[in-house]
Amino acid sequence: MKNRWLWISTIVFFCIRPEISADEVFFESKVRPLLVKHCYKCHRGKTTEGGLALDSRLGWQKGGDSGPAIVPGKPEESLLMTAVNGSNPDLQMPPGDADDKLNDGELEILKQWIAAGAFDPRTMTEELEGMSLDEAKSWWAFQPLPQVEMRASSEPIDALIDQVLALQQITATSRADKRTLIRRVTYDLTGLPPTPEQVQAFLSDDSPDAFSKVVDRLLDSPQYGVKWGRHWLDVVRYADTAGENTDRPLPHAWRYRNWVFDAFNRDLPYDQFVSLQIAGDRLRQNASATEQNEGVIATGYLAIARRFGHDIDQDIHLMHEDVIDNLGKSFLGLTISCARCHDHKYDPISAKDYYALYGIFQSTRFPFPGCEAKGQPRDLVPLIAGIEQTLIANNIQQRLDLEAKAQSQISESSKRLSQSKVAEGGSVLLAADQSENLQQVRVRKGEVLLLKVLPNEGHGADTTLVEWEITEVEGNRSWNLSAVIPTLLHGNPNVSENGTWCFLYFTDGRPRFLTEKYPTVEQRSELQSWSTGETPSVLVNRSDQDVGVWTKLPPTSFFVHPGPKDPVGIAWIAPVDTVVNVTGRVADAHPSGLDGVTFELSHVTSPEVGGFLLALGEIGAVPGSESGSIVPVAYAVVEGSPQNASLHQRGDPEKPGDVVPRSWLSMFGGEPISTETGSGREDLAEWITQHPLFARVMVNRIWQGHFVQGLSTTPNDFGSRGNRPTQLQLLNWLAAQFQANGYSIKAMHRLILNSQAYQRSCQQEMALVEEDVINRYLSRFERRRLSAEEIRDSLLFVAQRLDLSIDGAHPFPPESSWKFTQHDPFNAVYESNRRSAYLMVQRQRRHPYLALFDGADPNSSTATRQVTTVPTQALYFFNDPFFHSQAAAFAINLKSLQSDEQRINNAFQKLYQREPTMTEMERTVHFLQEYPGNFDEKWSALIRVLMASNEFLYLD
Amino acid sequence: MPNSILPRRQFLKSAVAGSVVFPGIVQQLFAEQDGTFTNRASHFPAKAKRVIFLFMTGGVSHVDTFDPKPALMRDHGKEIKADHPEIKDRPGYERIYLKRPQWEFKNYGESGTAVSTLFPHVATCVDDIAMIRSMHTSHSNHYNATLGMHTGSFSFARPSLGSWTSYGLGTLNDNLPSFVVIAPKQTYAGTQVYSNDFLPGVHQGTLVVPGAEPIANITPRVSLERQQLELSALNAFNRSHQESRQDSVLTARMRSFETAFGMQMAVPDAFDFKQETAATLDNYDLQPGQTTGFGWQCLAARRLIERGVRFVELIDTGSSGNWDAHGDMMSHVSLAKNVDRPIAGLLKDLKQRGMLEDTLVVWTTEFGRTPFNNTADAKGREHHPWAFTSWMAGAGVKPGIVHGATDEHGLRAVEKPVHVHDFHATILYLMGFDHEKLTYRHAGRDYRLTDVSGHVAQDILS
Q: Residue A459's closest CA among B90, B87, B82, B85?
């Protein structure tokens, strides 16, 4: 049998090298390598030394600052010769090491070449040469879409394809038979095989629109969203873990996954689908509660960016790169992240462009999945469970406002009562320095006494004991911090008859509430804390015993841990106008060779400040880091503090360069963001969805989902290194239709699937295959192997074990129990009979089954899945317990049928959507006779054979 | 280097492999033509036909094993200053003091290379070893340094060294994968350390876990006789399916079943040590019937390369209970004991069989350990990316030499420093590849193992 792949070589070979002259052989084998070796390092591309480019004929003809480099036929007059043979002391090339100089043999080659006329086939600059801004103006992918009339008919598709086929004199294959068609379209739209009943219904429907009816039925199936949502999850490198060194689970990421499935099912217009993923929190801030929630969940797209390193915050620039990389590829087919360290080598995207986008994400608050260095998750976004919740988006703005107000009150109206350093192991009374200040303090209702504990010299995490009592001078009331110990977790602010206490930390002077509640610390239930990350925090030992952890914590005691930069603050809000005495002490509870802490006690003499703090506490308490939280949360983003980013020189965040204002890509106009108070994500969503690339890239993906190859075979790269579509006109027409129909993805499916091109047979005469080896002209349908998910789902489906219900969260261990380290990272595989798109996928450890069958890469965008055929896959079909189990279940289901013939028929119908041929029937009967064992063994074996077959695994 | 007469295969590779036409289809293409994915034309004559890569997880202390530092002994307790990544902003590490090695060093062999008493057996092989005492790396975290040592990338998932080797050299045995990793547990960065990433799937490392079922699904669930019946029926169905479909992909898949069928025998055969003499087993510190332990891993490695596997990596432990001796350096004793005799046994066995001539043996870890600590009496040592020791032996490697050196306290690699990228460039060189030219086009860019750096350590080449 001849191999169809042999032709690729022949054809491609001759396209590129029609014939090879002796000059060319000499150039290619001798001269080019020499130039590459000695000159290209500096004299190549756009930015060349001395303006001289030696990577094209034009380059040396034009020459550099010193004029043309070569005079063909005259080596002695050629500057290049003079420079390399060392005859001119002022012009010695290559510079530097003697090792790098041309040897005599090489000089002779160069001389010969120039003497013979300097034949140079390099008419164009090298492929590696980048695209200029001017060239970008005429780049095919960036052109406006043509104006088209909206069409519901697929005829224009076929007209465009047939036109090219006619031009190439290629004959297309005939229409595939109906059985093939229904199998093909059912897998393409739902990832599942059709049932024998569905096949029968289609076969017996003779109406002209029988196929369109099948398409409509499948598009209405909820399984459609699972299949096409999974395509999308490939592109956005969805995973259920964070990917940092411990690969922490993301227990809430599933909401985004399910939202994607649902969005496909209800045909959410693609521009909205994308805008919500970039800025759903902002775009839906004034909508109904359900829509607001949807907007927040959709930003899970940004949130699921991969995290890196031991301490995520230290490698946060890598997360931002992952965001920008994926955003560029997914929505625009642009490899923007190539410009992180330097200007993009091939496309006109500068490092400045990269940091202009970077600023947008730096102004966005990403959820923190937890990491080894910094503890448990935080900054998850609460969803609206009921109307009593204030609007989330407003919350954020409100919080920022309140923080600012409280900050200014504290800085402007504070009167210091006392201040002291507490040395290692020391204990200092609050009244140590100026004791009279703590007597007879007149407070008004709403004013605050604030005790701040600061780290010295930037050391944090010093366990510091705090005792603090406030007693009325004339009345008989008193407020003691120790009274809070048993009820610490009741709230922050902690409000009771023991007073109103707020547990705060200060970031750049802004007061913030410690919002993470830990019912246990170091697995000790005697210890509880409020914190933000690991520190800053407040901590209590509520038992009447010493508790030995990192140090011995005395019974019934209250501690604070300042962060390395963030002081911890305890604020007491005066409930009445009164006069009080203040007593207490601050003591180092963990002598560890550090330099202790400092405390500051002050009186904020503004009666408004207490109100601000209480209001801040009310909205600042973000629930959700505890699995028992009442309010559901999403792994999603919200606005952060708006800021422009500094360019990182050579990609190094330690080497900040100029600050780059947030703006759109300069090659597309470089429009600045339109907001001073926001991140600019709404602008970004607008820019992206308005660009012609947006529709082109997506219709290409839809096309690929049906035809195996996209019209452009580089779906994530429409830049200069991408592949220009053979059928550019078709791509443009489809993109224009997509835009005209309001970005309905289902409408595009209908348009494409009802074309004759989609319905062609795979079977082509070999002679015809040769005409179009790689099927660029779409003369036939391209056979494909089922994907990993399709294989597994089909096995479950035919065994009647597939659970088609929607899945929710994964059974991750509760967050409070997480102790993952890089030595002992999270690692699990959860079995399920639901659709494979719901399987839990980890970043650090590939799911063993999905990895075996070329599942998507959870670490970077998978635009096209690899299809490999390796023996370890065959081992799966021989010996895998799951595979055996499905075959056995299938066999048991066959038992109830009357005869072997019926059973065989049934198996063929379910697996192949057809009856067995006479030969196959005989072969099967023979196999059953020959195979030893009982009914179950024989039939399981037969089903295994049929399920391992190419007919089951491949789609015609 | 561009050639006017490219070998057709090579041309095909460059034309087809880089997702220009059909990503992922290349290997079927080659599979069809040659029965396997064999040799890519190498850039210069290869010295090493196969590699055994011994990876010690957790960070082996160089100053206690292969890098003798008399001055460190002398200056024990002396305070030093260092802008070291492990102590930056770390409470309790404001002051640091040199800490002496805990083990004696002796000179061995004709070369006189010094080795500590932790490795008495490897010490007897020093005349075959090129000791690289000037290794350094780019990260002080296990995860990143381990990923870097395996893939050349310290953050991102990239193809591993073994996958690049498989991609470059192909396999010599259709019944066995070309890249095998034998590890009792997963190390840092999980499966990423032996992932093919964007290289075709055939180059992924096949994991062997010492014990009952060393490769997933390798144990037949029905008798081979029954399986043979199933396989012939399967072939019959596939043949009739193929009659009207002339497609090499379908053929390749049929062939993969034959290969898998063969693997079910070839793999147990490779791991069946019954034919090995008592002397050989003893050489590897193995008891008859033993199916775990580093000795088992070493002997299995020899048997795999004998059968044509190109790259075998042995990982000694996992991401915990390893060489990461923060608490007490004494944990190095049992870890060294676990590997010392098996490694020496492997080197001697290979040499005796004449296999060391074309087999490269590489020994390494992800980073060294600090020659200092925050008190001189601290029992452990911290992560030290600035300097560590690795060694190579066998094919193309100059035997009995020491390459490069650290400063007097083992703090910095000062003489002929060898970065991880240089290390990789050298390994590829020994296999006949120019590390700058062994590339793969992915997402519009030509990727290579050494990213944008790497220099071959010429001095260690024989």
A: B90
